[in-house]
């Protein structure tokens, strides 16, 4: 199982847990499993096409998945996925 770090803004879906576990062979599968275990969080992560929303950054072991294989990046048992909402400024 991969460990997923949940940002404060999404912890209402995970009973205020900062880290949870989910399974899958790819980032996409792990995040889909996360939504199965914690219903509703998927709508905060994915757009209507199934892509990661623009304002959510996903890191696998400290590397942005955009520089890897995106949602198809392979995930190993001990990997950590970190979800970070993009900051808006002005």
Polypeptide structure, described:
With 90 residues, this protein is of the alpha+beta class. It has one domain (2-85): Beta-grasp domain (Ubiquitin-like (UB roll)), CATH 3.10.20. It contains two helices and five strands; from the N terminus they run ββααβββ. It has a five-stranded mixed beta sheet. A hairpin with a 2-residue loop joins strand 3 (56-60) and strand 4 (63-64). The N and C termini lie far apart (39 Å). The model has no long low-confidence stretch (mean pLDDT 94). It comes from Pyxidicoccus fallax.
CATH classification, class level: Alpha Beta
Can you tell me the CATH topology? Ubiquitin-like (UB roll)
Mean pLDDT: 94
How would you classify the helix and strand content by structural class? alpha+beta
Oligomer: single chain
Provide the succession of SSEs. Answer: EEHHEEE
User: In angstroms, what is the radius of gyration?
Assistant: 12 Å
Strand order of the largest sheet: 2-1-5-3-4
Write the CATH homologous superfamily.
Beta-grasp domain
Percentage beta strand: 15-25%
Record field, number of beta strands: 5
What CATH architecture label applies? Roll
Structural domains: how many:
1
Give the overall shape: globular
Distance between the termini: 39 Å
> How much helicity do the residues have?
10-25%
Query: Can you count the helices?
Result: 2
The major pleated sheet works out as: 5 strands, mixed
> In terms of per-residue confidence, which ranges show pLDDT below 50 for 5 or more consecutive residues?
none
Protein name: MoaD/ThiS family protein
InterPro entries: Beta-grasp_dom_sf (IPR012675), MoaD_arc-typ (IPR010038), Mopterin_synth/thiamin_S_b (IPR016155), Sulfur_Carrier/Prot_Modifier (IPR052045), ThiS/MoaD-like (IPR003749)
Pfam families: ThiS
Organism: Pyxidicoccus fallax
